[in-house]
Amino acid sequence: MATRAVILLSGGLDSATCLAVARAVGRECHTLSFDYGQRHRGELARARKLSAALGAASHRVVKLDLAAFGGSALTDRAIAVPKGRSLARMAKEIPVTYVPARNLVMLSVATALAETLGATELYIGANAIDYSGYPDCRPPFLRAFERVARAGTKAGVEGRPLRIRAPLLRLSKAAIIRLGTRLGVPYGITQSCYDPIRGRACGLCDSCVLRRRGFEEAGVEDPTPYATRKR
User: Given this model, what pLDDT does residue 130 score?
Assistant: First the structure.
């Protein structure tokens, strides 16, 4: 019987590759997406398509009202999404697109689903390279959460601890794209943009910049329709 795993699937490039990796190592994958008040919620339809295309056993969308707290350009439309930032600046700052405690909340919900399903692994497409700047995508956070899940769940205290898998953690965006291409990820379905314009990627937000650069460095054709040409 295949090991059962819950996969956090946003609809973006990294999480789609993460799902493909889990499938490649024989996991029975149950994908989980969140409607959390994000301005780029078009990613949810893409997550559903990706889950089916990559052979997940089930797909769920959980509604969380993180917009009630605000504090991020992704959940508060009064805060502008940064555009045209340099790679050097991305490397130095935690951007305003950081959503307070997002991964902490989402991993907690995913842990609850994992217990319900009897899953022993939780996959997340966290990446500590390529200038993301997010503290909840870093190894110390993921290790600490794994310890919390072991101590705070019935499965954990009964000797069936949940393992956090972050197979993309130390890969560059180009390496992730090369890996996903080998595994057959349909990147044309994915959405990375934080601020889409009439269904097209803006081309200027941090996520668009890193995505476009990743495809260029990987030597793989970028299937993304951008609203703005590269500067």
Answer: 62
Q: What pLDDT was estimated at residue 231?
A: 52
Q: In whole angstroms, give the CA distance from residue 8 to residue 122.
A: 8
- The helix/strand/coil state of 129 is coil
3-state secondary structure of 83: strand
Question: Between 3.40.50.620, 3.40.50.720, 1.10.260.40, 3.40.30.10, what CATH number should domain 4-218 receive?
Answer: 3.40.50.620
Single pTM value for the model:
0.95
Where do the domains of the chain lie? Answer: 4-218
Residues of the chain with pLDDT under 50: none
Angstrom distance (rounded) from CA 96 to CA 83: 11
Contacts 24+ apart (CB under 8 A), 53-57: 53/186, 53/189, 54/16, 54/19, 54/20, 54/23, 54/29, 54/185, 54/186, 55/23, 55/29, 56/7, 56/9, 56/19, 56/23, 56/29, 56/30, 56/31, 57/28, 57/29, 57/30
Report d(CA 31, CA 110) in Å as an integer.
9
